[in-house]
Amino acid sequence: MTRARQDRVLGLLSRNGDWVTAASLADALGVTPRSVRSYVTAINARVPDGVAVESGPQGYRAGAEAAVALRMPAAIEGGTPRDRLHTLVRALLDADDGVDVFETADSLHVSPATLDADLARVRGLLGGTELTLERSASQARLRGTEMAQRRLLSKLAHDEMEAGSFDLDALRRTLGEGSVGAHAFGPFKTELVAELGALGYFVNEFGISDVVMHIAIAADRVGRDRALEGAAGEVPPAQQEVAAILARLVEQHLGVSLGAGDLQHLSTLVLTRVVAPGASAPSDHARARLDPEVESAVREVVETAAAEFLVDITDEDFILRLALHVQNLQHRAREQAWSRNPLTKSLKSTYPMIFEVAVFIASGLQQRLGIPLLDDEIAYIAMHVGGRLERSRRADQLLTATIVCPGYYELHELLRSSVDRSLGQSIEVVGVETRVDPDWDSIDTDLVLTTIEPAVAGDRFIRIQPFLTDADVDRVQTAAARIRRSRRLARLRKELERYFVPSAFVHGLDAEAGEEAVIRHLGSSLVAEGIIDEDYIERTIERERLSSTAFTDALAVPHALGMTATRTAIAVGIADPSIPWGEGRVQVVAVVAFSETDREAFQTVFEQFVEVFSERDSVHRIVRRSTTFAGFLDELVAVIDG
């Protein structure tokens, strides 16, 4: 039983928010339902006075103490391999001459063989840190620069922090209990954000939390006489301002005096996580800080993405802010100081189309500027794209409504004002009927909000009070959401029946084959139909390497970035039990070939298809009953129709 699998159970239940069967959880984890029951028992043992996971006839769901259990340190449950690994790494980092394997094994109460296995795990952590682990007889030591050693500490800290969010307790476990305290870092972070704001910057809260982690590491290392050496060269005025703030706040709150090398490093990190200048800063001032090569590359990639996906993202302000972000990203890449994004998973599953545009942009930037981009960094680009598209997306989702309110003084005007104020973001009132006997059949809006009993029946007719109540608002919002969903799924059903290829259906994907083999297997059916060529399959594999296409906990949608298929088509593979994909497991793999003539289908197929497979019960039903293509299509349509 592993802590990681227990935490994954908690994560799945917390994201789902409803009951999930043991069989569904077992499929998601690639284990047996019996193992799931043991994980739940262990999770609840973390909070003896509460309930982290509720059990019932319908399965399991997250309890009131789920978040507490997820943050519970592993050390509370006794010494775990991860806890021991972090202790070993700290010992290696603190000892210039290395550690004695036998003495260290005794101090950790494990055998030398177990410690040898832990050292092998340490080697596995060193990728990208520029550190090496040397072993000579009974001595083991780390070789590398101080900056490389800090990268390793950062890697360990992120490993402790769930979903990439800042967790001070996890950071203290990485650095050692005597390192930092919440009493110091709460006020420190508050003052840092305030002073950066006073300098005219918009502060990325996720980024600043990550910087606070680096500051904690720097304070801990300087306190152990492990300061960074200062770099030669002139320091820009903006960086000098930030360095002065850091020097004062670190000494005031943490009791550590930072040298020139640490201040230069940390001020660079702060500036490269300040995504955009403040609202008061004119665009020409922002552009003066921008490398023309970066701006040109971003503009070219954004214009290509806009044409490829038919999205409106060529706004000058959007390009300028994204270019500033990419320039900061270049600095982070040089420092290998990547920013974590706790919204990565939710962005991927909730807005797959936006995330796909971000992947396309990231791919173009990687080719033009040579920046390697991780999923968390792609998620930041997705946040820029989503922010730009939000207004147009919201306008597309507005439903029309008619208010029926028999006239009495200005009652109908007051009601319309209340509806606009409370529901204006989801519906648009296009008419008001003040007759007590309106022609109900002639009202053709999406919704009819009526204060009197309608003479006709239908889901779009909603009774409300003359003076709008909270209950009225909830009912209207629920009805509007239901109508939008039914329309989306109706479009999806129509599209999917056109695009599925019966000969490209596989039941029983090989769990040992690996992602590339599954893509080739499903893609070969589309090649046989003359829909794509072998190059499309290779580009699909390249796209998968950029960022996993597992958009939900059950569905992967591999595809190439270019829309070069002769027609849009989908090859489907069912995995029962689930197979590994990316960092998780999936049960359905849909290789999608997109044609340039069907660009508009891309959004429909992508977002609504992912939406269907985001519901665990629907996935379970489809997988269990889809032994043939006909059965799969019948179950999918049944789920869509509700």
Automatic annotation (TrEMBL):
Residue span, PTS EIIA type-2 domain: 498-642
Record bears the keyword Phosphoprotein: no
Pfam family, one: HTH_11
Gene3D superfamilies tied to this protein: Mannitol-specific EII, Chain A, PRD domain, Winged helix-like DNA-binding domain superfamily/Winged helix DNA-binding domain
Keywords: Repeat
Domain PRD intervals: 289-395
Protein's name in the database: BglG family transcription antiterminator
Species in which this protein is naturally found: Microbacterium terregens
Taxonomic lineage of the native organism: Bacteria, Bacillati, Actinomycetota, Actinomycetes, Micrococcales
